[in-house]
Amino acid sequence: MSMEDLMNMQVTSVSKRTQKVADAAAAIFVITQEDIRRSGATSIPEALRLVPGLEVARIDENKWAIGSRGFNGRFDNKLLVLIDGRSVYTPLFSGVYWNIQDVMLEDLDRIEVIRGPGATLWGANAVDGVINIITKPAASTQSTIITAGAERKREEPAASVTIQNWGQYPLQNLWKVLRWGPSNYITGGTAHDAWDAVRGGFRADWTPAGSNSLTIQGTCTAAITTKR
Predict the structure, then answer these.
(1) Partners of 214 in the β-ladder
(2) How far apart, in whole angstroms, are the C-alpha atoms of residue 133 and residue 99?
(3) pLDDT tens across 13-33, in order?
């Protein structure tokens, strides 16, 4: 992208309204769909490694620690994470189970990351920053996509399937299945951190007359950590 295109990129996480990056009064970094595709990332935490100043650590095959401004840990509760403007932290400890937030990367429009205080606008969870994961509207995903991948040092490949279609009122259907093999200790033993996940969901968008729009989304995820 040229410098002019970068400065004119639209963001919504700084003031809860659409504005140019150049006009945003915050240290904001945007990961585009093209950035994700070129990076080879297979999950949202891996894509977040592109953000300068964000600390992304992999604990094992099914646990991540992501933080900002030096306060990192698996149960970090000072970084607000949103998907399409909805908070996804668990009420139990105000942190995020990153292995559950398994949005299909092909459906992402962009990821906006604010590295710095955002509690004035977003609340107490945004003390150290905001991560807003924004997906494409249903009208932009009217196709069928099947993806599969595998990585070295894994016993089983990871695979995902999504089906998206439907007419006048665009409806997006998503079905995804993942199966990850366990990691190994340096001594050669198995860490028993393999995990399986099944995810299903839908999104429907409606734009009536005027500037209003309505989005209805639903997601159900089942993740199982197995001893293998």
Answers:
(1) 206
(2) 15
(3) 777 777 777 777 777 888 988
Tokens of residue 224, six digits:
């199982």
Distance between CA 228 and CA 208 in Å, rounded? Answer: 51
DSSP string, 82-115: EETTEE---TTTS---TTT----GGGEEEEEEEE
Residue 68: half-sphere exposure toward Cβ, Cα within 13 Å = 26
Tell me the per-residue pLDDT of 136-168, one tens digit each, with 9 for 90 and over: 887 777 667 776 666 554 444 444 455 544 444
115 neighbors 83 (Cβ within 8 angstroms): no
Long-range contact set of residues 220-223: C-beta below 8 Å, sequence gap at least 24:
221/100, 221/102, 221/197, 222/197, 222/198, 223/62, 223/99, 223/100, 223/195, 223/196, 223/197
| Position 227 confidence tier, pLDDT thresholds 50, 70, 90 | low
Contact by Cβ (8 Å): 43, 102: yes
* Residue 96: Cβ-neighbour burial (10 angstroms; 0-12, 13-18, 19+): buried
Q: What are phi and psi of 137, to 5 degrees?
A: -65, 155
Q: How many CB atoms lie within 10 A of CB 159?
A: 14
CA distance 34 to 1: 10
